[in-house]
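Title: Prediction job returns without error message
Component: structure pipeline
Severity: low
Priority: P3
Assignee: unassigned

Description:
Job completed but the reporter wants confirmation the result is attached to the right record. Sequence as submitted:
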Amino acid sequence: MSKKLLLLFMMLLLFPASAPAGEESPWEARLPFESATIHYTISGTEDGSEILYIRKYGREVATYHTTKTSMLGIVIVNETVAIDNSDWLYHFDLTEKTGTKSVNPEKYMIEEYNKLSEEEQKLVVKNGEKMGVAMAEGFGGAVQQNVEIIHGYSCDRAEMMGTVAYSIHGSGIPLLVENNMMGLIMKIEATSIDVGEVADKYFQFPEGIEAHFDSGSDAVAREMAKQTIASLKDSESLENRRLPILKAQQPQMTPEEQEQMQQAMELLKGMFGTQPQQ
């Protein structure tokens, strides 16, 4: 699977359900809290913890991830910080002392969406809702809304490619993720949710690490946003043409490509929960 096709998957999965009344676009935040801190435990192939800091109803998210993996008696430490906002996605590897910076794909999706007429926007939202579910089902997955209460929040269940994710209803915030793919077993479980103000220090970049920008990925993201919105304007385009192609490519994916897809799913885990049941 090419990187462009993988990015198309990500673009489509980023497409949420129709916007609630009063919201400017389908990407407006729907979290039931403005700011919160969520603590997770991680077990399986990796063991450790993760902390999610959320501000502005999810428009700003910082993720602190620390795990250890044991291989042949060698312990490998994985310590990262990801800081995301509506414009940029930053990722810092504290072990390797490296950093990357990329445009948030939602930015270009919103730009293309805002160019449409009101009638076209309604059609794009309708097709996006259908396609999110169709793509999940096309890869042996399923989507269910409001199936479980976790830490007092109603959660949607999304299953795809060996991953089952429970996320806060209508959001991409996971509270439980269980993954079993290609021998890699992972469980990420929220242990507490503390609703309240989050300090600025958690959104500051790690000292001494520079985030390098990949202009090539930016150009690809912009072009794929145009293609995705253009396709969703056609009521038959994606459902009748693209999906069969994607299905046909599934058995041909190499282990590396499957891992890339899994990483994309993990990045967007819970997004399917925003889609309606069919």
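Comment from assignee: result matches the submitted record. The CA atoms of residues 195 and 205 lie 23 Å apart.
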